[in-house]
Every structure is written in C-alpha cells, then in structure tokens.
Write a structure and sequence with these properties.
This protein has 142 residues and is mainly α. The chain has eight helices and no strands.
Length: 142
C-alpha cells in the first residue's frame, strides 16, 4: 500500500475529514486531498506529525511494512494471553465493537486523570460536567 492509500485509510478509520486533518496539521484540506491523490508528498516533519496523529510508525505510514506499532513490547502475561484467546473467538463485528469500547475506556481513563482525586463512582458526574466542554465518546458502532 502506498502512502496516499495508507493516509486515506487511516483518516477514514479515525473518522476524520480532510478538513479536520488539515486543521490538525495547520494547513488546508487541499493539502490532504493532494496527499491522498498522490499529487504532493508531505515533508519529513509533517510525516512525523501524521504518524503521531494516527499513532503509527513512519514505516507503516509510508507503506514500507504493515507493522503499525513496531516498538510495542510483546506481552506474554497470563492476563494478556487470556485476552488474546477471547479476542480470536470474536467475529469481525464484535472485534470492531471491542476496539470501540477499548477506545472509550482509554478516553474515560484519560478524562478521569484530568480531575485529581476523582473516584470511579464519580465518573458519571465528572462525565456530565465535561460534556459541555467535549464531545462524548461514542463506544457503540451505529
């Protein structure tokens, strides 16, 4: 897969528009459209930003290989192996739901860290407070 195809796939996977991705990189959507059509190539510094936004390696982004996270240490703990076993039993739709739920859990965890001394039980109250400031996390596929 070439850079242009990988960029488009990652952008759609994250449900970002060309406009939104352009804003994240501090330029217009036409730059993203040109990248995705193959008319232009980003600078190395922009490639680093794009890889960071999508949390992938530059090799993955450039299509050198298909390893998204080359520096993730293999986890061979019993708990992770059990998780892996259950994950392999899931159908594709269920895997997608699980990934969305995991994103929700990470977002909830990050939001809870933002308010010191917040207990898990108080999360719903905190979540209500933060709804005015941030879009709620969707964890269910529509």
């Amino acid at each position: 897969m070439e850079f242009k195809d990988r960029l488009k796939a990652l952008r759609k996977e994250k449900k970002l528009t060309q406009v939104k991705l352009g804003e994240m990189l501090n330029y217009g959507y036409t730059a993203i459209a040109n990248y995705e059509s193959g008319r232009n190539q980003p600078s190395i510094s922009d490639l680093k930003k794009i890889a960071s936004i999508f949390n992938v390696s530059m090799d993955y982004l450039l299509g050198v290989n298909d390893i998204r996270y080359p520096y993730v240490i293999d986890d061979e703990t019993a708990a992770f192996n059990e998780f892996r076993r259950y994950y392999t039993l899931l159908e594709e739709d269920s895997k997608a739901d699980l990934l969305l739920h995991m994103e929700f859990l990470v977002e909830r965890q990050n939001r809870m860290k933002a308010i010191p001394d917040l207990k898990y039980e108080d999360y719903e109250l905190k979540n209500t407070i933060q709804k005015a400031a941030q879009k709620p996390v969707a964890y269910r596929k529509e």
